[in-house]
Specification:
The protein has about 260 residues and is of the alpha/beta class. Helices cover about 25% and strands about 30% of the residues. The protein has seven helices and 13 strands. Helix 6 links the parallel strand 10 and strand 11. Helix 2 crosses helix 3 (about 120-125). The longest helix is centred in the last third of the chain and has 16 residues, at about 220-235.
Length: about 260
Amino acid sequence: MVSFEVIGSREKAVAIVEIPEELERRKVEIAKEIMERHKNVKSVLKKASERKGIYRIRKFELILGEKDTEVIHKEFGCRLKLDPTKVYFSPREGTERARIASQVKPRETIMLMFAGIGAYAIIIAKKQPRIDKIICVEINPEAFKYMQENIRLNKLQEKIIPILGDVREKCVEWFGKCDRVIMPLPHEAINFLDIAISCLKKKGGFIHLYLIEKEEKADGRAKSIVKDLEKKIGKEVNFSLRKVLPYAPRVFKYCLDIEI
């Protein structure tokens, strides 16, 4: 079975396909069928590696279509410009972005770590226009460029502050100033939990920490993280664990919602 996702709009989109080894010889035929069924798809890309490095990008093979794979993806009335060969973006996470946005209250200051093209920030700012500001830190220069453009495309220059650089260096300026921290980097986010805690105001706030974990171990890991956190800050916290997306057989992406 061939699985694929489509990024883009009715005007132009890119299909990203996973082709099992046994179907490799039929990859062009598969690409043709996708383009025939989805007339807006102008390029079909095959995943050629896992996501690697601090920029979280993977290699792709262009099977069929245009070499120009830059598109504008539309999500909940927002426009998100990107090239999936240069930045990380998953349209499957749109429901999760909307869920987080629905929790944000007026006048919040939000820290968005590992911000990518700014998708979380833009969805939040559109759903909760009375936020104070969202600080977006991203280390990939290509993603940062798209983030800046997406902020302009959605006319959110007064609400979103884009920052290029490493979270450990750039968040220091915002220590003690944030009501909410979002950490959508599931393999590495746990290593930055100390930074997230420092970003929160003295009165506390919310942290959304993303994890990749086996289904049978997820609850135990969440409780362990929270227990360690409570020891560190010297107080009890409220938390809940939500399954976001499948990642591998019996392995899922989770969001650990923490209220301090």
